Amino acid sequence: MTGNRRKKGKSGTRHRVTRAERKKILRNRILAGAVIGFTAVFVAIAAFGSHAAQDDQVSQRIFSTSYSMSDLYNNYNSADFVLDGQKMSYTDSSQYTYRLGIDVSEHNGTVDWEAVRNAGYEFAYLRIGYRGYGSDGSLVEDATFETNYEGARKAGLDVGVYFYSQAVNETEAEEEAQFVVNILNGRHLDLPAAIDMETVEDGAARTDGVSGDQFTQNIKAFSLDVADAGYEPMLYTNLHWETFTLDMTKLYDLPVWFSNYSTAPGTPYKFRVWQYSNTGTVDGVSGSVDLDIEMTPVDASESSAGSVSGSAGSTFLF
Hints:
The chain is an alpha/beta fold. The chain has seven helices and 15 strands. It has two domains: about 1-60, no CATH class; about 75-315, TIM Barrel, CATH 3.20.20. It has an eight-stranded mixed barrel with strand order 5-6-8-9-10-11-12-13, surrounded by four helices.
């Protein structure tokens, strides 16, 4: 104990510590501990405040509460989309440029990415993982993601990813986003990381009782965490979800990957990518494959409502 310790005085002789000295030593130690503790708390609060401020800034820049009707709707002319065999085009080059791509998962087996590139496809969205339908909702990495990521990039295709979500609340959506970020582990993406929410048609799903408002909040939670990690978020959806499930006024400045298997998009809402077929035939892929067309405005100012920077320093134009 401190009261039983001896110390040397200025003369070098040893003497017993008095009660007054013990009180002074104890008081000084208490004061020092309080200062250190207060400093640690202050630093922690400052760090949390900085992170919260960054999250708020990202939230405000992605999900603004102020929008105009023109922010929601696209300017495409359906008659300018022309399907020639397997390949879609957009004929009004004064307004938009376009390029073609595919999206794949383990269900497509082994892909010859050089053959895909030589067939004229310039980008690919790869399934990075999914959450199971069951009550436990296990998170699973797509069995072919690593091979597809390396192969597609080596062949010169631009790469994005998508995660099939079964999140029932924001916490699970954040878990899914972190799962994606952990698998990527800082690796480069040319295209966004999309959250894929769909209606399960052939059986019960853990999301069957989730409301449209909750789905909307889940998308926002996933997107914020993806953006915070330095990747551009995206929403994969269809017209039924846009019209009857989601609140698109709260998601309007997310880039959309729209799904409708037809010769025309069939949606009034804005989209960047249109998945126009799920029965495509492409060299290098066995069986049917999803086909996509990506649209880029000639006037870059029309491409989006805003931009956001992730924590890795990437800036995304929406």
